[in-house]
């Protein structure tokens, strides 16, 4: 098979971006390369998950109190491993780990960035062969370089992100990442083992037909959220509908579809869990950054997600995220008395 040389690989693309900034050091390119490598390793295991014993519950409970699947731990170790051995990352925070990890070696202490990630998102779907993903978020550290990174490096508001992205292990495996300059998507070409630029400069359509929410929790949602969902069900041609409800239960897959096709994704607070389920630092912030760069919006119902000052590593937040016009309509419901 011949390789189409008009298609850039992830590494070629990040280097090309780098050349446009004479002062850039290449540390972000190298960080993205590290994450891409871990993603390829995890992809191999995800693809054979039905065959090997790595599948299934690991029998422990993670810091969020959820059952941990073996692949969650495998993915966590792969991402942590490449970042620890790379030259760009001073430390990490992970959905699967109680506390942040300071790498604290000579090279890492000189590094510019800290990374936070959800190593496997939608892991409840592994056993049933449904798309899952990885989500990551990159911050420039606020602590002094040359010293070990500190907690404040991890508790920065989302508007300080330098880059954020996700990997979707789906019918194809894709790597999508955003910097302030744009969102770009790369599809894994399994014949050469490289992520190739397939979705340049992704923009989220201002409106769409998809709404994604767990209807099973409907009666636990706030009255205004229920009214909005009810409104989605009543959409007609005349009012921009009809809408289609799509909810996979893997946020990566649900938000990816809505980013490309236009739509809205919601994980509101419930009476049982007023702050919802999703984590601000590993799930809401990276997607809020990606969607905003692509032209969309993200809020917790009261405040822009990216402006929330985090107080804890694992804090949760309600999340509403998607196409700008759909978000404006949602907000008109949420602002009702
Ligand atoms: P994780 O697998 O990382 O714990 O996250 C799962 C999340 C998210 O991906 C998904 O949208 C949501 O949980 C689904 O939750 P419900 O089943 O409560 O709707
Ligand atoms: Mn989990
Ligand atoms: Mn998750
Ligand atoms: Mn997870």
Automatic annotation (TrEMBL):
Instruction: List, alphabetically, the Pfam families matched.
Output: FBPase (PF00316), FBPase_C (PF18913)
* Stretches that traverse the bilayer: none
Catalytic reaction(s) noted: beta-D-fructose 1,6-bisphosphate + H2O = beta-D-fructose 6-phosphate + phosphate
Give the residues the record marks as binding Mg(2+) 2. 118, 121, 283
Q: Where is the Fructose-1-6-bisphosphatase class I N-terminal domain?
A: 9-200
Cofactor annotation remark: Binds 2 magnesium ions per subunit.
Q: Which residues are involved in binding Mg(2+) 1?
A: 95, 118, 120
Q: Name one GO cellular component term.
A: cytosol
Entry cofactors: Mg(2+)
Pathway of action: Carbohydrate biosynthesis
Family, similarity comment: Belongs to the FBPase class 1 family.
HAMAP family from the UniProt entry: FBPase_class1
Name of the protein in its database record: Fructose-1,6-bisphosphatase class 1
What organism does the UniProt record list as the source? Sediminibacterium goheungense
Instruction: State the encoding gene.
Output: fbp
């Amino acid at each position: 098979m011949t390789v189409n040389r008009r298609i850039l690989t992830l590494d070629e693309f990040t280097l090309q971006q780098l050349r446009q900034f004479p002062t850039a050091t290449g540390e972000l390119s190298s960080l993205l390369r590290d994450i891409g490598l871990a993603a390829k390793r995890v992809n191999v295991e995800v693809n054979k998950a039905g065959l090997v014993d790595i599948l299934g519950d690991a029998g422990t409970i993670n810091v969020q109190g959820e059952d941990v699947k073996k692949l969650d731990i495998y993915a966590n170790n792969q991402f942590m491993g490449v970042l620890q051995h790379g030259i760009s990352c001073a430390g990490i925070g992970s959905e699967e780990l109680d506390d942040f990890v300071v790498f604290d070696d000579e090279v890492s202490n000189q590094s510019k960035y800290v990374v936070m990630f959800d190593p496997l998102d939608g892991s409840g779907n592994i056993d049933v062969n449904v798309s899952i993903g990885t989500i990551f978020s990159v911050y420039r550290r606020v602590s002094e370089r040359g010293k070990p990174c500190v907690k404040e490096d991890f508790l920065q508001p989302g508007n300080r992100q330098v880059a954020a992205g996700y990997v979707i292990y789906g019918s194809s495996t894709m790597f999508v990442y955003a910097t302030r300059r744009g969102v770009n998507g790369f599809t894994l070409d399994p014949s050469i083992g490289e992520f190739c630029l397939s979705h340049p400069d992704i923009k989220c359509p201002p409106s769409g037909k998809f709404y994604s929410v767990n209807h099973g929790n409907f009666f636990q949602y706030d009255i205004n959220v229920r009214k909005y969902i009810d409104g989605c069900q009543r959409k007609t041609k005349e009012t921009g509908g009809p809408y289609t409800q799509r909810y996979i239960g893997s946020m990566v897959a649900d938000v990816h579809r809505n980013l490309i096709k236009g739509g809205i994704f919601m994980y509101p607070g419930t009476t049982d869990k007023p702050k919802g389920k999703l984590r601000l630092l590993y799930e809401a912030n990276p997607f809020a950054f990606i969607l905003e760069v692509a032209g969309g919006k993200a809020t917790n119902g009261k405040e822009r997600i990216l402006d929330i000052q985090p107080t804890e590593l694992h804090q949760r937040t309600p999340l509403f995220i998607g196409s700008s016009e759909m978000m404006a309509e949602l907000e008109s419901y949420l602002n009702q008395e």
